[in-house]
Write a structure and sequence with these properties.
The chain is α/β, with parallel strands linked by helices. It has helices spanning about 1-15, 30-40, 70-75, 90-95, 125-135, 135-145, 150-155, 160-165, 170-180; strands spanning about 20, 45, 55-60, 80-85, 100.
Length: about 180
């Protein structure tokens, strides 16, 4: 029994704490973030002031792109997805968010609502993509496993995710992104 406890504790130390700022703008039955919280795969936050001040916050409008070297910061302070409706995304992210904002490079959605659309990721897909880029592949797979379409996210984005995870700096990541997606996507 002690070995199991140690292994769980060790695993927790090797993967970042995942948070979801729940703005409750979507149908809770279809909301990927709500399911992550229900299954205790993410910790819920209900107000912006609850966002850990040094955490990495996924923000599609951030000038700073998420890189594999952000891994140490994610391990130390956590990773936050802001769960809001796509209709309110502009208004939500124009507010000053606590934490260190990072945007994901272009990835294709696999969720049924926005299938194969670039940048239209669910909170689950954004978290899984981030974890994969930073080298937490098993954790990304574990999150995606809660939906039958989850594995499709990794299949659709296999080559870009590998290229993004291999990029050593922002310039290299942007070059990799341009290999897979045109500038107007």
């Amino acid at each position: 029994m002690r070995t199991v406890e140690f292994n769980l504790r060790e695993q927790t130390l090797r993967s970042p704490r995942v948070y979801v700022l729940q703005l409750r703008q979507d149908d809770p039955k279809k909301c990927t973030a709500a399911k992550l919280v229900r299954l205790r795969l993410a910790s819920p936050l209900y107000r912006m002031r609850q966002v850990p001040s040094r955490s990495l916050v996924l923000n599609p409008f951030s000038p700073d792109v998420l890189l594999n070297r952000d891994k140490a910061e994610a391990l130390r302070y956590g990773l936050v997805a802001v769960d809001c409706s796509w209709e309110n995304v502009q208004a939500t992210f124009t507010n000053r968010l606590p934490g260190r904002s990072r945007r994901l490079p272009t990835l294709l959605a696999s969720n049924p609502v926005n299938y194969a659309k670039p940048h239209k990721l669910s909170s689950l897909e954004a978290l899984a993509g981030s974890l994969h880029i930073m080298g937490f592949r098993e954790e990304a797979r574990r999150l995606l496993s809660i939906f039958k379409w989850g594995e499709t996210f990794l299949t659709l984005n296999a080559e870009p995710l590998e290229a993004y995870a291999s990029a050593s700096d922002e310039k290299g990541l942007i070059e990799a992104e341009s290999q897979f997606f045109s500038a107007d996507t």
